[in-house]
Amino acid sequence: MSGHGGGWANPAPAGLVALGVAGLTFYALLSGSVSAGALPLLGCWLMGGFIVQFTVGVIELKEGALIGGNVFLFFSGFFMLAGGLEMFVKYFAAANKWAIPLDGHMDGYAWVILTIALIFLTPCYMKSSNAVMGLILLLLTPAAGLVALMDGGWIGATPWKPIAAYLLGAVGILGVYMASAIWVNSTFGRTILPTGSSMIK
After folding, report:
1. Dist. CA 105–CA 109, nearest whole Å
2. For a tag site, which of 57, 65, 82, 200 has the least CB within 10 Å?
3. What's the per-residue H, E or C state across the chain?
4. d(Cα 6, Cα 11) in Å, to the nearest integer?
5. d(Cα 117, Cα 22) in Å, to the nearest integer?
6. What are 116-169's pLDDT values in tens digits?
7. 133-142 confidence digits (pLDDT tens)
8. Angle, to 10 degrees, between the axis of helix 160-188 and the axis of helix 131-151?
9. Are 57 and 69 in contact (CB under 8 A)?
10. Rounded to whole angstroms, what are the CA distances from 182 to 31, 54, 163, 199?
């Protein structure tokens, strides 16, 4: 269908749509817009996102995109696959009242590593990409940090949970905007949906 006759097309928009889905569904969960009964459904959406982001990560690495390829690869594994599987485990543990309760603090420790990675990736995106991508990372990094601190039990849910929810909701909206900008601007050969220049020159 591509018709261009060679090479790989840019898969990043698909990965950004998957990020958008994850961001907005996590907003719904953290904001209380949905109940715990949504966990298995969220798990399904995250598993779908895993397939998309894994594919995007591998193609981007093949094309030499060091930052984007690595981000999509570790997001596919941890944010999507591990996150999706966890939703099923947490739901069934609660529904079946497992004799040994889950210790969700483990998630906090894992999210600490993801947050540290994002802290160092944020200036890379601010330097090498456009303003929208820089803003996505600027919002995603503190959201991940708040999730890490809450899951680890180092801070309480109040007032941080709604803040993390809104940050992730904004990441979701910006992710789908960025994907749309790549599609529309590439198709029409000019800037129709602006993305701005890099934040760090």
Report:
1. 7
2. 200
3. CCCCCCCCCCCHHHHHHHHHHHHHHHHHHHCCCCCHHHHHHHHHHHHHHHHHHHHHHHHHHHCCCHHHHHHHHHHHHHHHHHHHHHHHHHHHHHHHCCCCCCCCHHHHHHHHHHHHHHHHHHHHHHHHCCHHHHHHHHHHHHHHHHHHHHHCCCCCCCCHHHHHHHHHHHHHHHHHHHHHHHHHHHHHCCCCCCCCCCCCC
4. 15
5. 19
6. 999 999 999 999 999 999 999 999 999 999 999 999 999 999 999 999 999 999
7. 999 999 999 9
8. 150
9. yes
10. 30, 19, 29, 18
Q: Which amino acid is at 83?
A: G
104: its two tokens: 């969700």
Structure tokens given for 23: 């961001």
**Scanning the structure block, which residue is given the tokens 């992730």?**
168
The label of the residue with tokens 């950004």 reads 16
